[in-house]
From TrEMBL:
Coiled coil: none annotated. Signal peptide: none annotated. Pfam families: 4HBT. This is HotDog domain. One of its GO terms (molecular function) is fatty acyl-CoA hydrolase activity. InterPro entries: ACOT13, HotDog_dom_sf, Thioestr_dom. Residues 61-133 form the Thioesterase domain. Belongs to the thioesterase PaaI family. Keywords: Hydrolase. The keyword Hydrolase applies.
């Protein structure tokens, strides 16, 4: 928020100057690319669907899809709370259709509710053709 109480949208070309807090190795491993960001409100990240993420059906394994959601929720939580002292209480993922190697999983997460000790976020994941792949919701809590 700026001094007038309005949200500030990030110039994505300036993404290296964003304070994401400690970046988990899994975010780097999954090669996330920031597409859009509104401080404390929403974050969109694209993940390539690589051969290492595939199940025997040659589509992205559900666990990797959930990990991608968690890799968006974490930085968004940090942006909203200003602290790395949070932890996931739960994460629920619903899968709507498979996504194949060579495509890109594009996740947009939004803060839905935030209190003193808990933050609730929800997200949707689409492929490059704008087809819904999965949805997720999570709750994080502040830890002391």
């Amino acid at each position: 928020m700026d001094n007038h109480g309005t949200s500030k949208k990030l110039d994505i070309s300036d993404q290296n100057n964003i304070d994401w807090g400690p970046v988990p190795h899994c975010f780097t491993f999954m090669q996330g690319r920031i597409i859009d960001y509104v401080a404390g409100q929403s974050l969109t990240v694209a993940f390539p669907v690589l051969p290492i993420y595939l199940n025997p059906a040659r589509t992205m394994q559900g666990g990797f899809i959930t990990a991608a959601f968690d890799n968006v929720f974490g930085p968004l939580c940090y942006s909203a709370t200003g602290t790395p002292k949070t932890t996931t209480v739960d994460i629920t993922t619903s899968y709507h259709r498979p996504i194949s190697e060579g495509d890109e999983l594009i996740i947009t997460a939004m803060v839905k509710a935030q209190g003193k000790t808990k933050i609730h976020m929800a997200a949707e994941a689409y492929n490059r053709n704008k087809q819904l792949i999965a949805t997720a919701a999570t709750n994080y809590i502040h830890i002391k």
